[in-house]
# Entry
Amino acid sequence: MARNTMTPTVIPEAPGASNPSDAILQVRGLRKWFDVGGRFLGIGQRSWLKAIDDVNFDVRESQTFGLVGESGCGKTTTLKVILGLEEPTEGNIYWQGEDVADMTRAGRREFRRSVQAVFQDPWSSLNPRMRVQAIVGEPLEIATTMSRQEIRDRVGDLLVEVGLNPYQMNLYPHEFSGGQRQRIGIARALALNPKLICLDEPVSALDVSIRAQIMNLLVDLQNEHGLAYLLVAHNLATVRYMCHEMAVMYLGVVQEMGDTEAIFNNPLHLYTNALISAALPSHPDITRDEIILPGEVVSPIDPPPGDVFMTRTPIEVDHSNEWAQVRPPLVEKEPNHWVVDTPWSLATDEALRASIYDEEAEIRKSEEERRRLAAEN
# Structure
């Protein structure tokens, strides 16, 4: 009997991603740069839009990993690269220890079955000309040898599992509410018994009253089927409720990552503090200082070579510092709590005092300006 002489894949460790034994998806050094031209007749230097720049993380079995950050920080692009909707410029994606780029055709087919997606807008993600039975059953028609009756039975079971009725498989998407359409999208994602579901803002397009229902449904399905989730979200309350681990992204670069509760209880990066201060508190009697970061988000086209956050910090930046010229790494400040550590990025008392919005000062400034204009007139 011939022995298997294939060398097992060695997955490198990275800051914040240390190859846990139960990792199901591992991302290493992932970059996605878009060529936006900048040359004339082939002469000149190319310009690149750096949507993702050296991103590393692990998604563990039966757990949820969240990607957080403002619009344009690269969260959804990361999902698209993992799903194969975009080709990575650089880096590796490992599925159950195997590099996706080196998979055989059968391996890639199994990967596509095992990794599914639920999209942000439940209306545009469903074909309005197809009945629910065809929408939910289409993956089964493509990837299995089930008969029509078996597919119909499976669709009915999936609809019941997500809180709908079997008879609704004969309806069209426009005959459902937004929350019900998202349930249909979840049923479609469950059809092939996946191991990982990528959730792209799954509740942001829904009414506030429906969001908790969908989040509870997703958590229940995770507990029942042992699903892993990769969640992209703006709403920090959603992230805190659903995610076991999270990463905070800014301009395509991870600024802070680790255990979700550790980050919310002790946010170390100024950007993380600003995001948390901008979120609505869980109770109206809770008051918090509003942190306003100066400046504007720089263009992702050829951003600064060093720390991408240094244009938004309220602390003066020493441009002779190493991290003003070289991209700083994540540093583990607490167990499973990693952060970009530069003299201008951490939420020290000085940094927080400099960035807290002073409402009374703004009122005084406005009054002085009004009096000055009145005196001039």
User: Anything to note?
Assistant: The longest helix spans residues 208-225. The CA atoms of residues 26 and 365 lie 51 Å apart.
